[in-house]
From TrEMBL:
Organism whose genome encodes this protein: Ornithinibacillus salinisoli
Location, primary (coarse class): membrane
Gene3D superfamilies listed in its UniProt record: MFS general substrate transporter like domains, Multidrug resistance protein D
InterPro entries with a match to the protein in the record: EmrB-like, MFS, MFS_dom, MFS_trans_sf
The protein, known as: DHA2 family efflux MFS transporter permease subunit
Signal sequence bounds: none
Membrane topology: Multi-pass membrane protein
Superkingdom as given in the UniProt entry: Bacteria
Length: 472
């Protein structure tokens, strides 16, 4: 396929994925409003966010099977239509139950979008141009969740919370209409056999883990619901993995981890994504509850870093195409490690400028890690395994963000409570600092792993793959 024919496909995939990811964090500032308007508690209101991530995590592992079963065009139109239906349900919901129903439907469509987009991009671009293409994907993945709270915070000051869905809906419909006419079939259909037991095990496995660790931050690790969810998740996931090795056509191909580069870059991507989500979760708590900043201040802290990451993602993609991933990832993880350490020095009087500048540098570093590492790993796989590679990569990142954030929030709260049942602001901030110490150690581990990434360029990898007969 010539590159000039790729533009219509890119033009519908990127907005669709942007809207899907945007909705993951768009409702964060609306949680206090939901509490008042729908007469619910904070723990209940948080589920408008948690349920979206939970269903996303359940859907992503199944996408490799869906991509190999349905045409690209049909799967994209179906995913976006499901997302649109969920948006309508949310916009019309008179109560919390219906709002949650809409969020589940939204997430079911959104969970298909990112692996589908990444798979299509890897297939339609030659290996030496994938860095630039995936850099654009990185722009969407990083910019959408970062701008969501800022955008919705401004809208909620002016309008009712339903405006968040009424604004998204026409954009989704426009993308569906354009896709109907321009979307092409790219992926190869292999019609794998439906293994319903694998789908059930995957749902309970990933769903149980995501639910358990997401809930741990709210209810504590000793809560029976949390313990049961994690146990069910671990047992189901172990059974699911063992079953995939026995199936001739597995739902999710765990053999992709046999490739050393894919294995290393997946772990690095998990830690980098955890660094992104954890900071966006913990910093607002510190700023608003401990340092006296407003929600608008929090949004403004995140915005410059989001803009910088959005600008740098395509640039880093082009650098990747020319020089490879190794030094990009090493420099990026060095910045992530340093900024994580800088956030261990927070006090009640830390300035807004300090928090903003450190966060911007942090996002700059993450932009050098996320898509270059992902693309370097996927480049090592033959085309037939790319749908499984993208599904695995996205699943592992989602699990890492959920589990890691749950652990870091728990470390933050338990450290603050170590001095007694009543905590002062200084105790609470000490908990925040300790959680960033843990993040610093994780970033340092990823940095060490980065030195094991191959130092080859995509052009050199293509030549090697052709020589080995892997390009087909």
């Amino acid at each position: 396929m010539k590159q000039m024919n790729n533009f219509p496909i890119v033009a519908v995939l990127l907005p669709g994925a942007f809207l899907a990811i945007l909705n993951q964090t768009l409702l964060a500032p609306a949680i206090p409003i939901f509490m008042d308007d729908l007469n619910i508690t904070e723990n209940t209101a948080q589920w408008v966010m948690t349920i979206f991530m939970l269903v996303n995590g359940i859907m992503i592992p199944i996408t490799a099977f869906l991509i190999e079963t349905f045409t690209t065009r049909r799967l994209f139109l179906t995913a976006m239509s499901i997302f649109a239906i969920g948006t309508v349900v949310c916009a019309l919901s008179p109560n919390f139950a219906l709002l949650m129903t809409g969020r589940v439907i939204q997430a079911a469509g959104a969970g298909i979008m990112i692996p589908l987009m990444m798979t299509v991009f890897i297939l339609i671009f030659p290996i030496e141009k994938r860095g630039a293409a995936m850099g654009t994907v990185g722009l969407v993945i990083s910019f959408a969740p970062a701008i969501g709270p800022t955008l919705s915070g401004w809208l909620l000051e002016q309008y009712h919370w339903k405006i968040l869905f009424y604004i998204v809906l026409p954009l989704v419909i426009i993308d569906i209409i354009i896709a109907y006419f321009v979307m092409k079939n790219v992926t190869t259909r292999t019609f794998p056999k439906v293994d319903f037991l694998s789908i059930i095990l995957s749902t309970f496995g990933f769903g149980g883990l995501l639910y358990g660790f997401s809930s741990a931050g709210n209810y504590g690790w000793t809560n029976m619901t949390v313990i049961i969810a994690i146990l069910v998740g671990c047992i189901s996931l172990t059974t699911f993995i063992l079953r995939q090795f026995k199936l001739k056509q597995p739902i999710l191909e765990f053999r992709v981890f046999k490739n050393k580069t894919f294995r290393i870059t997946t772990v690095i991507g998990m830690i980098a994504f955890l660094g992104l989500i954890a900071a966006e979760t913990i910093l607002p708590i510190y700023m608003q509850n401990m340092a006296g900043f407003s929600p608008l201040d929090t949004g403004l802290v995140i915005l410059p870093g989001a803009l910088l990451m959005g600008i740098m993602s395509p640039i880093n993609g082009r650098i990747f195409d020319r020089f490879g991933a190794r030094w990009l990832v090493i420099i990026g993880l060095s910045l992530l490690t340093v900024t994580s350490f800088l956030y261990t020095q927070l006090t009640p009087t830390t300035s807004l400028t300090y928090i903003t500048v450190v966060f911007a540098i942090r996002m700059f570093g993450i932009s050098m890690v996320m898509m270059p590492a992902t693309t370097a790993g996927l480049n090592q796989l033959p085309n037939r395994l790319i749908p499984h590679g993208t599904a695995m990569n996205n699943t592992m990142r989602q699990v890492a963000a959920s589990i890691g954030t749950g652990i870091l929030v728990t470390i933050m709260t338990s450290t603050a409570m170590a001095s007694g049942n009543t905590t002062t602001t200084v105790d609470q901030i000490h908990g925040v600092n300790v959680s960033f110490y843990v993040a610093t150690v994780l970033s340092a581990i990823a940095l060490i792993l980065a030195f094991f990434i191959k130092g080859t360029t995509p052009a050199e990898e293509r030549a090697a793959m052709v020589a080995e007969g892997k390009s087909s």
